[in-house]
Design brief:
CATH class of the largest domain: Alpha Beta
CATH architecture of the largest domain: 3-Layer(aba) Sandwich
Largest sheet: 8 strands, mixed
Number of domains: 2
Low-confidence stretches: none
Radius of gyration: 22 Å
Helix content: 40-55%
Mean pLDDT: 90
Structural class: alpha/beta
Number of helices: 16
Strand order of the largest sheet: 8-9-7-10-6-11-12-13
Strand content: 15-25%
Oligomer: single chain
């Protein structure tokens, strides 16, 4: 495996090269580059498994280079910098780094990071598809849909990741009758040590093949959930599962935005009433300002068929968009399933609401089982 080092510090380059060589990576002295040399040199290289980029002393220049490398360079990019600046860690991950190494403990941290990356380096794979569910207001039923959508996808792919990002009120664990031991806040409190093993141990598995990463169990721990931790957890989920379903809240806080920006599909779940339609319109305007492509966003009406609801044609006219999917009202089947902690697609697989959710899963399913 071939590795390159991008650094302005000779002493740091020497230390990194020693670790890379010890770990069995090919890194001759000709693979040590400066920031200025990198684009010219790596633009002609095809055999690159790993790039180790040292951020200091020219942090902004290094981040600009990282952004460019993430667009074209093969292999994974490992950033080396201080972990005392959480904003820098987040910016680095957003720019395209796969992992972040603490410069203060370089040798040990780098060796651990290479061990974490070894599978990705030797067998690069397409990241799992990320499907985000967003409701414009409470009561839309997006959590019920998220749980059942994940279970439906797991029937095809055997294993699916499920992230509960409703940090204060998340109820996916209850809907699946699961009792998590660890949560997203635990991962975020250990963000500098987070690896695939720690991530997998934080998941709780449902019999269907769904693996849930739960929100904090206590409200006081919500503040521990940071965007950089969410970014790392999402990246690990996508490297581990063919599909990841994320149930978002409607606050548009930064940890929610991490997932919205990465999502392959955003399902905007709402009901056909005036309040929901007003909030859907506001959400669509805001997503447009965030420059999230409109083709990623699909409108999903839940509890369709209630009396006195706004006609679908008028809703589409008001929103200026077509509704992609309708999930029928079936309070009896949904309430019974939710109260039992059994997804309705399992509890009442033949019900119209279950068949509709399974059709929704088919519509987002861009991959076939291997």
């Amino acid at each position: 495996m071939s590795a390159f080092i991008v650094s302005e510090k000779d002493s740091c380059s020497t230390r990194i090269r020693e670790v890379l060589t010890f770990c069995g990576l090919e890194c001759p002295s000709s693979h040590i580059l400066t920031l200025d040399d990198t684009m010219r040199r790596l633009g002609r290289e095809a055999d690159i498994d790993l790039i180790v980029l040292v951020l200091q002393p020219h942090v902004e220049d290094a981040l600009n280079l990282l952004t460019a490398l993430a667009r074209f360079a093969p292999g994974k990019i490992l950033a080396v910098g201080p972990t005392s600046d959480s904003k820098l860690v987040l910016r680095t991950l957003r720019c395209g780094a796969f992992d972040y190494v603490d410069a203060a403990d370089l040798e040990a941290e780098l060796e651990a990071a290479i061990a974490r990356l070894s599978d990705a380096i030797t067998a690069p794979a397409e990241p799992g598809k990320l499907v985000a569910l967003l409701s414009p207001n409470g009561g839309s039923g997006s959590s019920t849909i998220a749980a059942n959508l994940a279970v439906s996808l797991a029937k095809e792919h055997q294993t699916v990741g499920l992230l509960d990002m409703k940090l204060e009120v998340g109820d996916l664990a209850a809907l699946l009758d699961l009792r998590p031991t660890y949560t997203l806040s635990d991962l975020c409190q250990n963000v500098t040590r987070m690896d695939q093993v720690m991530f997998e141990r934080s998941l709780v598995k449902h019999a269907s093949g769904v693996h849930l990463l739960a929100p904090p169990q206590h409200l006081v721990d919500v503040a521990q959930v940071r965007p950089e931790g969410v970014a790392m957890a999402t990246a690990m989920a996508r490297s581990h599962f063919p599909y990841v379903v994320a149930d978002l809240d409607h606050t548009f806080r930064e940890e929610q935005m991490v997932i919205l920006r990465q999502a392959d599909i955003i399902l905007l779940v709402f009901r056909l009433d005036f309040t929901s339609l007003r909030n859907v319109h506001r959400n669509l305007e805001y997503l447009d300002k965030l420059e999230i492509p409109a083709e990623k966003i699909r409108l999903v009406v839940n509890r369709y068929g209630q009396s006195q609801e706004v006609p679908a044609a008028k809703a589409e006219e008001a929103l200026g968009r077509k509704i992609a999917h309708f999930i029928p009202e079936d309070a009896k089947a949904i309430n019974r399933a939710n109260n039992h902690g059994v997804p309705v697609v399992i509890e009442a697989a033949s019900a119209k609401v279950s068949k509709s959710i399974m059709q929704l899963a088919t519509s987002v399913n861009g991959r076939h089982r291997k």
